[in-house]
């Protein structure tokens, strides 16, 4: 669950810390005070894209930080799998600069928005008015149904089988439509043989580059070696002078040791001369090979350029040429093989898609009963819920064309959600669906952002009661304008905005019991009068009595 939310220099908030508790929390305040800014902050620190400036005027950056309890073993495992330390608490912090650049961290470690979205989706679910309308989409309904039926893994297998089926279908279609002339076959053969005959090694191009570079450098150095050899061997050279000097010194016993040293130097010079000659000869031989090496390098580069731009791509193209040649020469055999593969792919898809469809349909009645039960609890006494199914052609999500349909009044035919319910009915219907589907979602925190549109009185009271029931299993955060819903909360926060000539600041406060009664009175009657507070106290008493 969310334990704490901190914002600094965020839109209208200079600094605020909200310590959440388990159970149900209500966040209230006047329209425009900034209640939804807190939910937006949770969204931003959960990886949601920021589309406008969220840095408070005059500040350089905004900081949003959320602390989540990390008790769920699967959440810890997911963190460890992605290289993060799993502690008792998960701390996510997002910093947004005034030029709209942002950095996000998980437990002090920089990461990506995509990872944070994936991470927080495992523990937080935000439901807003926009989500209400998204629930009308058949694709969203299908996702919820698979979540409820716990068929997500089977659906992934169906998707993989469908992709395999489409791949084989495309291959067969290509083979059946492909007709090549003799000239085209000769062209493919030529391109294939070019690669085969070249016998190019995987690292040969790089090795050739190094050899050519070495020989080119050697050519530059050969002149210096030639000059050095002349000085060592030419007329009046150092070598002869050393030899002659040694012979002169040998004539006297006094200089025998010096003569010996000169002789050693002479033989060292002779050895060096031989080494330099060998190096010159090697350079000359390699220079003769330079043209051949350059021609080989040109051939390799040309073939790579014509066949994908890399050695790996060229090898893949070589295999593709071979397969195409084989397919042309043995066309009938290849067609029979691919048709057999298609039959196998169709059978596998049909088996998996049929199993998925059966598992979905097996839960229809149970789901219908559960939704209708919760609808009746929130004063939709005549509501009936059903899932309309027709079979559709093979697709990545199976063979079921599904849509949620409802009848809100006696004698009314079933019709899609968007055509059947008024605004208030739709809010209640979506709450009922949320309660049912949440049981299989695995999240710890559910956030309702002003989903009480179009309801009041007894209906609002019933919706609050349903949220309270939900809070026995989940942490529930609720932004509401209605006292009949806020009265059910275990914890009550109020968001207030204050303005001066120079600035506007929003603050959030946790209300004690008397402050909460005053706020409920203001929400109901517009002011905290004695009569209003008495009514609020009676409302809380009704809540306490259930």
TrEMBL record:
Keywords: ATP-binding, Coiled coil, DNA damage, DNA repair, Nucleotide-binding. It comes from the Bacteria. GO terms for biological process: DNA recombination; DNA repair; SOS response. It holds the Pfam family SMC_N. Residues 158-235, 259-296, 335-362 form a coiled coil. SUPFAM superfamilies: P-loop containing nucleoside triphosphate hydrolases. Residues 21-499 form the AAA+ ATPase domain. GO terms for cellular component: bacterial nucleoid. The keyword Coiled coil applies. InterPro entries: AAA+_ATPase, DNA_recomb/repair_RecN, P-loop_NTPase, RecF/RecN/SMC_N. One of its GO terms (molecular function) is ATP binding. PANTHER family: DNA REPAIR PROTEIN RECN (PTHR11059). Belongs to the RecN family. May be involved in recombinational repair of damaged DNA. This is DNA repair protein RecN. It comes from Catenisphaera adipataccumulans.
